[in-house]
Amino acid sequence: MKEITKETRIINFSIDFICILITYVFLGFFLLTNTNLSIIYYCTYFMYYFLFEFLNQGQTLGKTITKTKIVNYNNKTPSITRILWRTCLRLNPFDALSFLCGQNGHDSVSRTKLISSKKD
């Protein structure tokens, strides 16, 4: 199973980010409360990645469109603990920096990888 290029990762992120923003705006509009909007954003961000990757066998909407998925190092669907850990690591501001430096922090620390889900 082949690991995915940076370009595919950027496409995944872009699609997922648009979905997160749409959800965030929707929630922000309907939850007209005194709640800090940044809390709503980070909760939306966290729940989007966690729920999709857990309930959709390692795929967010972006990964579904690009036919990729996350797996553990044995090429199996990651456990809920690994998905939770991976999602928490995404909130680290250095995660984006690790991508720019050729690493994928949320992948390496959570011991997961992104592969093609296409049937060969």
Model description:
With 120 residues, this protein is mainly alpha-helical. It has one domain. It is 61% helix and 8% strand. It is built from six helices and two strands. The protein has helices spanning 6-30, 37-55, 61-65, 80-90, 94-100, 105-110; strands at 68-72, 112-116. It has a two-stranded antiparallel ribbon. The N and C termini lie close together (9 Å). The mean pLDDT is 85.
- Count of distinct strands: 2
Largest sheet entry: 2 strands, antiparallel
Number of helical segments? 6
- Spans of at least 5 consecutive residues whose pLDDT stays below 50 are none
Compressed to H and E, one letter per element, the order equals HHHEHHHE
Biggest sheet strand order reads 1-2
Quaternary: single chain
Q: What structural class do the secondary elements suggest?
A: mainly alpha
Shape category: globular
Helix content, binned percent: 55-70%
Provide a concise account of the structure shown:
With 120 residues, this protein is mainly alpha-helical.
